[in-house]
Amino acid sequence: MLACIAAFFMTLFSSCTGENIRPLGYTGAPLVILDTDLGSSTDDLFSMQMLYRYHDKGRCKLLGVVVDRMGENNAEIADVMNTYFGHADIPIGLERSGIANPQVWIDYSGLPQYRKADGSLMFERSIADYSTVPDGWKLYRKLLAEQPDHSVSIVSTGFVTALAQLLESEGDGYSPLNGVELVRQKVKCAYVMGGVFGESVESDYNFMQALDFSRRFFRLWPKDVDMVFSPGDVGDAIEYKPETVIGDISWTNVHPIKQVYMKCDCNTGQKMWDPLAVIQAVLGDELFKLSERGEVRLSPNGETIFTANPKGNCRYQLPGDSVWNVDMLWRIRKSVMML
To answer: Does the pTM exceed 0.85?
Structure first.
C-alpha cells in the first residue's frame, strides 16, 4: 500500500513539473572518474590537483583517471601526479586507439624526466611498467561495475575517445551489461568541458580533434543520463597567470605544476577551463548559472546544437559576472596553495 501511495505522488509530481524524474540513487560524496588529455594544456593539471584536495577533504572520492591522449608518457605524467599528491592507489587508464598527434598547446611531456641538481629524478612514480596500464574504456568498465547504481560523476576535460569506446563495449568479466546499459545503470551525470552554445555557430576544439569518436559518443550516450557542458567561453575570463602560479607555490620548488610553469612557456593565453567542470561535479549546481534543459546533438562539422526541451538530459554553464570569475579563480588558487 505504501509503495502504491509513493508511486501515485511521484506521478503527480512529474505531471505538475513537466521535468524528468531521474533516479535519485546514490547521495553520498560524489564518486568521480576524471577523463583528461594530459600532455598539452595545463588546466588539466590544476583539475587533477583540485580533485586530490577535494578527495582529501572528503568532498568527493576520486575513483580513477583516464588519460585520453595516447602515449605511455602521458600515463606516466598521471602517475607522477598521483604519486606526488599521495594517491598512488588511484588507478590510471590510457587511450591506446584514439587520435594520433592531436594539437599540443603547452608541451610538458618531459615532466616525468625533470631532474634535481644532483641528477636524480625530481618526481617519483608508482608504476614500473606502463604497458600494464589498462585501456581507458576497460578501466571505465571495471570502475563503473564496482559502484552503486546512479552514483558516478564523469568529468571529461579532454577528448571523448575512451567514452565512445566504453559506450560501444560489450559485456565482459566486469559486467554482463554492454557499455550503454552500464552507463545508464551506474552514471549519475557527465560533466563535459566543451561545446559552443548561444548565437555562435562554430566547431568545438575537443570534439573536432576526435570528430568520429565524438559523433559516436553523442549518438550512443543514453538520453536519460544527465550531461552538463562547460563551454570554453565560460572559462575565458578565468586566467591564472604564470607569475601568479609560481608565486602561489612559493612553499616549494619540487612541485609538478610549478616545475611545468618554470620550464615551459605557459604564457599562451591558457585559461582555467577544465577546473569548472570539476568544481560543479564536486560542489554542485548552486555555484553556477545554467541553461534550461534541452538536447544536444553534434553536427557533421563538430558544432554543438542545443534544442530546448524540459525533459532533455543536457544543460550548459553560462558565463558569470566579474565577481563569479574572481571566486572561481580563488577556488583554484586555494587548492594550489594547499589552503
So the answer is: yes
